[in-house]
Protein: MFS family permease
Amino acid sequence: MTVTAAPVRRTWMVAYALAMIGVAAGWFGPIQILLPEQAARLAGEGGKESLLALVTAIGAAASLVANPLWGALSDRMRSRRPIFLIGAAIGVAGLLVLAVADARGPMIAGWVLVQIGLNGPLAALAAMIGDRVPERQRGTVGALFGVAQIVGVVLGTALAVAVGQGTPGYVAVAVAVPTLGAALLLISREPAQVAEPVPIAWAVILRPGAQFAWAWLIRFLLNLVNALVLVYLFYYLSDQVGVGDAALWVLVLTVVNVLVAGAVGFAGGVLSDRWERRKIFVAVAAVTLAAGTVLLALVPVAAVAIVASVLVGAGWGGYVAVDMAVITHVLPDAETRATMLGVANIAGTLPQLLAPVIAAPIVTALGGYPALYLLTAAVAVLALACLPRLTALS
Structure:
């Protein structure tokens, strides 16, 4: 499988971004408002944190397995399209299960289906960067990949606020996923990728190389920062900051975060291509994320939460500007691109599994939200400390 030297067109970029927005809306929209509200409704105020942690942890565990399997399956097929379609269908089915879930079991089952299903289109979209995009455009398109995920967060959150929590919110998100993905499927004319299915290269997966491992670790740590910020944001605003309408404030902070992250991410992607520099963007991102989370820890008031959201958005945007460019640059084998991107995507899904496990005991017994967000800042600093070991990049 080889990458074309021809640049991708703007129409393809727009359709690609829309498809990623749809996937992210189905994935992160529920995490922001729908799942926390559902957990509070089913478990009550005394058990909402534990139920949310259980649901998200089980879903993330399913995602941890699903993502590399979707990638391996994609490498054994001649087109990424079936992976996108089948995975999206499973994810939509999971959202509809959540829409009618009135007990813990169906809630867990629905979220597991969402996690398993939406990893399919995520794996396909990640692999398309390696398949279709030349190196000189990977900062720009990789930034679109990351920024579109951020826009998907605010879209899913806005849908939940606009149409209502519970069943209407889940149905709206379920409609958004295939609708936004349709354009890419309609305009994309994929050539056959390989003459014959490629066997899974277990040696490459198990021994991917030091540079891939360091890039994976940095991605894991910064995604863990993002996951720790988001996992109890709804409860932080209602219980620690004391706002009257936590759902509305989650939307406000998410919009602020997205606007800043989108602007910084896209500009950073273009500049990283122009300057042919990646590491400086990661370094600045880690420092900025740490500053934002320290503010959340030390000054839990609404106005400061907005400032912190600006900093977190700028930091996350700076990282997603170069994230995919970094990962695709250190892939060990072009013939196992989707498989290894699936392994790389574990660095994005594993934090979802760990975040509630880490956050729940801290929030309930080990220092509360100040301790949680100071730990989050320390994770960002640890990512910064790993960056000098990534010697393959400038």
About this structure: Residues 10-181+199-389 form a domain with the Growth Hormone; Chain: A; fold (CATH 1.20.1250.20). Residues 191-198 have pLDDT under 50 and may be disordered. The first helix runs from residue 10 to 43.
